[in-house]
């Protein structure tokens, strides 16, 4: 029973870490898109 609980905790931790990396990557992509839009707007002035 202790092994099962340990495996569940490890799996949950791995899922949480992977989700954080995914959210961080999505934030970076959105930021890069915003910078591209800002640069295009500056060039169009």
From TrEMBL:
Coiled-coil blocks: none
Pfam families: Entericidin
PROSITE patterns cross-referenced by the UniProt entry: PROKAR_LIPOPROTEIN
Keywords annotated in UniProt: Cell membrane, Lipoprotein, Membrane, Palmitate, Signal
Leader sequence residues: 1-18
Keyword presence, Cell membrane: yes
Family: Belongs to the EcnA/EcnB lipoprotein family.
Name of the protein in its database record: Entericidin A/B family lipoprotein
